[in-house]
């Protein structure tokens, strides 16, 4: 496995190569994609990107947690968490591409 | 929100681009992420989250219909961890 880490810059570069806009505008468009997804999720919407996956927000109720180091009980307040469910296509491609 | 709605929103903000262009841009972003994971790479988008690949060990599964035991091979699966900023925003902290 190569184990490289890609960032926004790599995604912008891909958009730049694919569409031929300026690097600045390509970067802004990548940011815009992430911002729209985030805003929809913050508004409580599910974001479903066909052949990529589904981002959904779940409400978690309060529970009692424990500090694993001290064993002390600490209350965990109710919170909203984001889950990502990859599409079958993504799962298949990742499994095939990284077969051990 | 679905893919086409995302594309439409970005197209509305960028009237100088055609819908076809925006479609290609959005698709390129998602395709690059999948292609990276396919190579075993990580994609780290600060504030949003990180996509990575996790190894799952082989296990003995069961056909839920027949109850028959089946071997499930070890495999790599995509994983997403929410970024700190987005996690805070979801909880009204940012």
Which radius of gyration of chain B do the C-alpha atoms yield? 19 Å
Label the overall shape of chain B: elongated
Q: Number of DSSP helices of chain A?
A: 3
Q: What is the string of SSEs of chain B from the N terminus onward?
A: HHEEEEEH
Strand order of the largest sheet of chain B: 1-2-5
From the N-terminal CA to the C-terminal CA of chain B, the straight-line distance is 22 Å
Tally the helices of chain B: 3
Radius of gyration of chain A: 19 Å
What does this structure look like?
The complex is a heterodimer of chains A (about 100) and B (about 90). Chain A is built from three helices and six strands; from the N terminus they run E-H-H-E-E-E-E-E-H. By secondary structure, chain A is α+β, with helices and mostly antiparallel strands. In chain A, the strands form two sheets. In chain A, strands 2-3-6 form a three-stranded antiparallel β-sheet. In chain A, helix 1 crosses helix 2. The longest helix of chain A has 20 residues, at about 25-40. By secondary structure, chain B is α+β, with helices and mostly antiparallel strands. The model of chain B has no long low-confidence stretch (mean pLDDT about 95). The longest helix of chain B has 20 residues, at about 20-40. Chain B starts with a helix and ends with a helix. Chain B is elongated, with a radius of gyration of 19 Å. In chain B, strand 1 and strand 2 (about 50-55) form a beta hairpin. Chain B has two domains: about 1-40; about 45-95, Irregular (HU Protein, Chain A), CATH 4.10.520. In chain B, helix 1 (about 5-15) crosses helix 2. Strand 1 (about 5) of chain A pairs parallel with strand 1 (about 40-45) of chain B, so a sheet runs across the interface.
């Amino acid at each position: 496995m190569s184990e490289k880490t890609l960032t926004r810059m790599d995604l912008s570069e891909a958009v730049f190569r694919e569409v031929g806009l300026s690097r600045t505008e390509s970067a802004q468009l990548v940011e815009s994609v992430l911002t729209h997804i985030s805003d929809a999720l913050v508004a409580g919407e599910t974001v479903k990107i066909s052949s990529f996956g589904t981002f959904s927000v779940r409400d978690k109720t309060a529970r009692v947690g424990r500090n694993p180091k001290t064993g002390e009980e600490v209350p965990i307040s109710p919170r909203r968490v984001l889950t990502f469910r990859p599409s079958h296509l993504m799962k298949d491609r990742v499994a095939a591409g990284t077969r051990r | 929100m679905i893919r086409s709605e995302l594309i439409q929103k970005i197209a509305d903000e960028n009237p100088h681009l055609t819908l076809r262009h925006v479609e290609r841009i959005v698709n390129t972003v998602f395709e690059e992420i999948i292609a990276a994971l396919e190579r075993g790479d990580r994609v780290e988008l600060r504030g949003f989250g990180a996509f990575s690949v996790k190894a799952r060990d082989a296990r003995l599964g069961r056909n839920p219909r027949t109850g028959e035991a089946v071997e499930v091979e070890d495999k790599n699966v995509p994983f997403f961890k929410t970024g700190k900023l987005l996690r805070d925003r979801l909880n009204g902290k940012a």
